[in-house]
Amino acid sequence: MTKPSLHPFTWWLWAIGLAISILRFDNTLYTACCLVVVMVVVFSLRDQAPWAKSFDWTLKLSMWILMVRTFIGITIGVPIPGTELFKLPILPLPTWMPGIRIGGAVTWERLSSSLSEGFLICSIIVLFGAAASLTSPHRLLRVLPIYVYEFAVAVVIAASVLPQLVGAVKRIRMAQRLRGQSTRGLKSWRRVAIPLLEESLARSLDLAAAMDSRGYGVSKKRTRYRPISWHLKDSLIVLSAVGLVALS
Amino acid sequence: MALEGFLDRFIGCWFGRVVMIKFSNVSLVYPNSAKTVLEDLNLTIAEGEMVLVIGPTGSGKSSLLRLINGLVPHHTGGILAGDVSVNGVSTQLTKPGGMAHVIGIVGQNPANGFVADTVEEELAFGMEVLNLPNDVMRKRVEEILDLLSLANLRNRSIATLSGGEQQRVAIGAALVTHPKVLVLDEPTSALDPIAAEEVLSILHRLVHDLGLTVVIAEHKLERVIQFADRIVHINGEGIAKVGTPEEILIDSPIAPPIVHLARALGLKEIGTTVRQMRRLTTEFREIPITDKKKQEVAQLTEAISFKDVTITYGNTKALNGVSSQIFMGEIVAIMGRNGAGKSSLLKALAGVNQISAGKITVLERDPFGLEGRERRESVGFIPQEPSDLLYGQSVGVECEQADADNGVAPGTTLAVLEQLVSGVSINTHPRDLSEGQRLALALSVVLSSNPSILILDEPTRGLDYQAKNELTRMLLAFATTFKRAVVLATHDVELVAELATRVIFIADGEIVADGSTLDVLLSSPAFAPQVAKVMSPQPWLRVKDVIAAIEELR
């Protein structure tokens, strides 16, 4: 292990701190700076573990959200006066829906406010993905106190089944391709989704049964084999985020 | 009579031994199902016994195993009548977690049950949750690492281990709490013969050294039969028979090849180990060594040829410059240890794996460019999980879809399925089929397009003997009657002996042997089928080879 081994809470606290500061600053430039820092940190520190891929997924997801959010933001809603960029045809709506307009003039103000609001949502999602991909869910389970038993079981199942699902999607799409089915379009996703759902359900049940038979949650106390301790570098990372919150 | 037999067996011969597991009048029914899984089962397992549970797929072997620690019915639902008690504690009153210090259980697919990143943490997990003090944990982890020869893997990430290593870690994780009972569901079904041998000999040692009670379910009897003290045979209608291996196997339809050999030779008693059988069959071997029969295949039309094929994933080479040719009418088995590169080769031949170097031609074309109908008509592929191919809500829908895809008359696929397995209702959901039936459905979907080449990846995983025989019959008909090529990757030496005309043996991404089944299987003791081991040095692989050779002599 050449990478520093940090406490599993560290990156989560750091991400939460950054998220709070982003929301409080509410400044697009600041948000963008934060995201650049997050990306640099994730790409340089993450390892080959299956959950490390979750960052890429959240990046893709947030791109989609940004696009959809912006599209809806500029087409639906109350017009904001200002510099007009272009004009969309107005969709006639029934009279019982007053005050809502679809289409119409798109102003620079409207576009930029939609973009910056979408950007804010995306940054929170990306921060979540960053924390998830930098922290092993299994180590997180080890430090979670046992009285959040149900929650912890759910976390470990979600965290260990999800990365396996990424592999399963690949495998099933390959099989479907071998059956000579096209792997593009919405219809193909239906063909993938059914075997995938079945498999994820079966896997989750297997894991829950395994944890149950090994006595998880029976004793309210739990010992630690190799206790995970909190180091100076953990404090420094968390403090950096706390500092930003204080500044905002 | 029944009562007497019962008393004899359980009081007479278990007198003085500690009863570890006791099933009293156990019947089990799952909700929404008319079928009784178990009916009035009485079974007593003493401390230090190794009990093997056998039966066709879907007969309730897994349910029986999961009854022992109460996962059935606490985790799955179902109505349980009677009582199961382990070490004097009834499972009706205790949840599975409360039994964790008495029973260790290893599921069918151990990778699904791992909760930690590294081997050491996985081993410690069971003790952490039982709140054992740290010094005890340290000692026991070391002990288990030594016992299962895992010491050099202690800091490895579990995801990077091979199938056999993962199985050993799962067994270790179950053993750290010092349970009195170890329950394993098909521990060797995904393993190559050598890894399976390792796992089973460890279990054998645990039984003998520590007095551990082991209950194990397994389809591949040839691998486990020699270690079992007693067998529980579930017949599928809920009736279970209990007895020593000799008692059960003498008339059981489920039997390993050596028992079939004993029956075919008309021996009065049967042996369950190769050693016993060699003693019983000395006279049959004392004939001049027969010549190896050449399996003649007219090598006329080439189906597949690959030359200097290399496949790399990241930094690792899965295949390193392999070349061979496969002809129509051949059945080629690809063998090798877990992770040797078998699946990579099959996927490359089917045209879904991009190769890094070399050239593959399938029916004089590059398989990578095949799409849609053309692909279906040239190469049929059955993946490791046949259910990956299926997405319909019922068998009927699945078959209609295949008919429509291939432009054949409605009902063609269903007719193929009927030929493979009879009595599958078209309204059944594919998930509710047994492993064998699901494989048959996937196979009929693939065969309905009439492919020239059939590729199967590990088809016998989880199949019972009957389903395996059906598969053998189907593939032989496909290859010999229609002169088509079949390529399959498998760990099952018995299947290879029955089926294949040629074996390609891969180790570490390179072909180490490529020759007729007889030559390749006889040259390696680990990969020799049971009949060959019993009859060595005679070059016979199957029961019918032995019979044929003896008939010829007369």
Q: Which tags fit this structure?
A:
heterodimer, A: 248 residues, mainly alpha, two-stranded antiparallel sheet, B: 554 residues, alpha/beta, Rossmann fold, 3 domains, 6-stranded mixed β-sheet, 22% strand, globular
The chain pair with the largest interface is:
A-B, 49 and 65 residues
Radius of gyration of chain B: 25 Å
Number of helices of chain B: 22
Distance between the termini of chain A: 36 Å
| Helix content, binned percent of chain A | 55-70%
Give the helices and strands of chain A as they follow along the chain.
Answer: HHHEEHHHHH
Distance between the termini of chain B: 44 Å
The helix content of chain B is: 25-40%
Biggest sheet features of chain A: 2 strands, antiparallel
The residue ranges of chain A in which pLDDT falls below 50 over 5 or more consecutive positions are: none
- Strand-residue proportion of chain B: 15-25%
Strand pairing plus helix content of chain A: what structural class? mainly alpha
In terms of topology, how is this protein built?
The complex is a heterodimer of chains A (248) and B (554).
Chain A (H helix, E strand, L loop, with lengths): L7 H18 L2 H18 L8 H22 L8 E8 L10 E6 H27 L2 H7 L5 H30 L6 H29 L18 H16 L1
Antiparallel strand pairs in A: 1-2
Helix pairs in contact in A: 1-4, 1-8, 2-4, 3-4, 5-6, 6-7
Chain B lengths: L1 H11 L6 E11 L6 E11 L3 E5 L6 H8 L2 H4 L4 E8 L2 E2 L12 E4 L12 H11 L4 H14 L15 H13 L5 E5 L7 H18 L2 E5 L3 H4 L5 E5 L5 E4 L1 H5 L7 H8 L9 H7 L1 H4 L16 E12 L2 E12 L3 E5 L6 H9 L6 E6 L9 H7 E4 L12 H12 L5 H9 L14 H13 L5 E5 L7 H17 L3 E5 L3 H7 L2 E6 L2 E7 H6 L7 H6 L7 H11 L1
Parallel strand pairs in B: 3-8, 3-9, 6-7, 7-8, 13-17, 13-18, 15-16, 16-17
Antiparallel strand pairs in B: 1-2, 1-4, 4-5, 9-10, 11-12, 11-14, 18-19
Word description of this protein:
The complex is a heterodimer of chains A (248) and B (554). Chain A is mainly α and 248 residues long. Helix content of chain A is 67%, strand content 6%. Chain A has helices at residues 8-25, 28-45, 54-75, 108-134, 137-143, 149-178, 185-213, 232-247; strands at residues 84-91, 102-107. Chain A starts with 7 loop residues before the first helix and ends with a helix. By secondary structure, chain B is of the alpha/beta class. Chain B folds into three domains: 18-248, Rossmann fold, CATH 3.40.50; 256-286 and 526-554, no CATH class; 302-388 and 453-523, Rossmann fold, CATH 3.40.50. Chain B is 37% helix and 22% strand. Chain B has a six-stranded mixed beta sheet with strand order 6-7-8-3-9-10, sandwiched between helices. A six-stranded mixed beta sheet of chain B has the order 15-16-17-13-18-19, sandwiched between helices. A four-stranded antiparallel beta sheet of chain B has the order 2-1-4-5, covered by helices on one side. Chain B is globular. The chains are: A mainly alpha (248), B alpha/beta (554). Chains A and B meet through α5, α6 and α7 of A and α4, α5 and α14 of B.
